[in-house]
Amino acid sequence: MDTFDMKPEVLFVGTYPPRKCGIATFTADLTNELTRLLTHEFDISICALDKRANTDLYNAPVTMVMDGCRLNSCIAGAEAINQNPAIKIVCIEHEFGLFGGNMGEYVLAFLSLLTKPFIIRFHTVLPEPDEQRLKLVRSICLLADKVMVMTRHSHRLLVDDYNIEQDKLAIIPHGTHPIPASNRVDLKSRYNMQQKKILTTFGLLSPNKGIELGIKAMVKIAAEFPDAIYVILGNTHPNLVEAEGEAYRESLQRLIEENNLTNNVKLVNEFIPTDQLLNYLSLTDIYLFTSKDPNQAMSGTFMYAMSAGCPIISNAFVLANEMLEDNTGIIIASGDEEALANNAIYLLRNEAVRQEIGKKAFMKTRNTLWGTVARKHAMLFYELMKKQSPTYNNIVAL
Question: Are residues 23 and 149 in the same domain?
Answer without folding.
Answer: yes
